[in-house]
Amino acid sequence: MRAVDIIIRKRDKKELTKAEIEFFIQGVTQNTIPDYQASAWAMAVLLNGMTAQETTHLTLAMANSGDILDLSKIAPIVVDKHSSGGVGDKTSLVVAPLVAACGLPVGKMSGRGLGFSGGTLDKMESIPGYRVDLSEDEFMQQLRQIGIVLTGQTGDLAPADGILYALRDVTGTVPSIPLIASSIMSKKIAAGAQAIVLDVKLGYGAFMKDLEHAKQLATLMVEIGNLSGRKVRALLSDMNQPLGKAVGNAIELKEAIETLHDGGPHDFREHCFTVAAHMLVLGEKAANLDAARKLAEETIRDGKAWEKFAQLVKAQKGDLSFIENPDQLPSGSIEDMVMAEQDGYLSMLNAQMIGEAAVILGAGREKKGAAIDLGVGFHLEHKVGEQVAKGDVLIKIFANERDKLSAAKAKLMEGIAIQSEKCAQLPLFYGVI
Ligand code: URA
Q1: Is 223 left (phi over 0), alpha (psi -120 to 50) or beta?
Q2: Among 2.70.20.10, 3.40.50.170, 3.90.1170.30, 3.20.20.10, what is the CATH number of 330-419?
Q3: 262: alpha, beta or left? (left if phi > 0; alpha if psi -120 to 50)
Q4: Looking at the annotation, which residues are catalytic?
Q5: Would 232 disulfide with which of 25, 139, 225, 392, CB 3.0-4.6 Å?
Q6: For range 397-404, the mean pLDDT
Q7: Atom of ligand 1 nearest to the CA of 187
Q8: Tens of pLDDT along 184-212?
């Protein structure tokens, strides 16, 4: 078999066989297929698509390119969640300890922010000392001992995805449904959880801009998960505007802490309770969504979710004094604000532009490995659908450098619209698959 023939077959819109896909992924992993051929192949897939069968073969080939964790030794069901990315999405920080405190182990490997999308690891690293580099043994041991882990990818999971994703990032081949589905699901399958809730975002700040494409991605990921013996459920949720009110790293951690203390913004609380409820049903801790939601609300109210979060931070060597006194967490030294320029109703808070403005301030990175500023970010004082008056503060800005502040402010203003007619609030969810 030759890599070039496989590229040509995909270029000519043919369905690749399992053997061809396995050969290609093995070649990518072992570096016998060079970057230029892997990139050409990714572009052919982006342009011509893949069948569900091809995508499943691709997912399993990528999952099998490295270790596959066996979490069945730890508990009958370990649950995981995955968000397809977004702005202000600090859900894992609340939902992982919440679900674990209900007695369902959560073993979660998260990523860093890239582009305008934030990352769970960066938010957790706002806590001095917090380790995100647990080994596979440490992952297993902690999951067994306290029922929760929130770390970076351990060991050698789906290395083929790591190589391909880095190439896709610089060759314009990220937004392909089969490539995204196989990338996400190969890592989830390798990470070993038996039940997985996928939070597929749609809107300005998501990979999928509309409901139809988000549904296609979600359906494909659920099918792949089921074919590989996992219980998978996908929620379709809004990412036209950021989730909650905080955007940044330490500032999002503070909002998660508030929520774990039974506070937090309404939309973010609702989002967390819904995701947690689906995890609890899938993990067989509750008979139905209503019972699961009651259990989740009670677990926040009685402080057990907070205790589990503190246990997690302690186990991963984070300094507890920072989560006990969140005012000590880093915060930008220069404060500014964006104000409403007219009376009316807030009709757009474009999540992508707000995410890009956060990257300008230094909260995110354009390239993998770049340093970030944990203290900068935004606090949204209003959300889409709310009435505002000229001069009202719409967004508070926390910056550390003046030139970045003015560029970020200009970007924020591009992402805001106010209209004189009443407009509806955005839905939180669009469906479940
Ligand atoms: N997240 C991933 O892990 N992979 C993709 O391709 C897109 C989002």
Answers
A1: alpha
A2: 3.90.1170.30
A3: left
A4: 82, 161, 168, 183, 187
A5: 225
A6: 96
A7: 3
A8: 999 999 998 899 999 999 999 998 999 99
Q: Tell me the fold of 3-49.
A: 1.20.970
> What's the pLDDT band for 430 if we cut at 50, 70, 90?
very high
Residue to probe by mutation, ligand 1, list 55, 84, 186, most atoms within 8 Å of CB? 84
Q: Which of 149, 155, 165, 157 is nearest to 92 (CA)?
A: 149
Structure tokens belonging to residue 37: 């051929």
Domain covering 71-324 assigned CATH 3.40.50.2300 in the classification: no
With a threshold of 0.90, does the pTM exceed it? yes
Q: What is the pLDDT of residue 365?
A: 83
Measured from the Cα of 179, ligand 1's closest atom is 6
Which ligand 1 atom sits nearest the alpha carbon of residue 168?
6
R_g of the chain, CA atoms, integer Å = 21
pLDDT tens profile 294-327: 999 999 999 999 999 999 999 999 999 999 999 9
Spans of all domains in the chain: 3-49, 71-324, 330-419
Does the pLDDT of residue 116 top 90, yes or no? no
Pocket test for ligand 1, best of 81, 117, 153, 165 (most atoms within 8 A of CB): 165
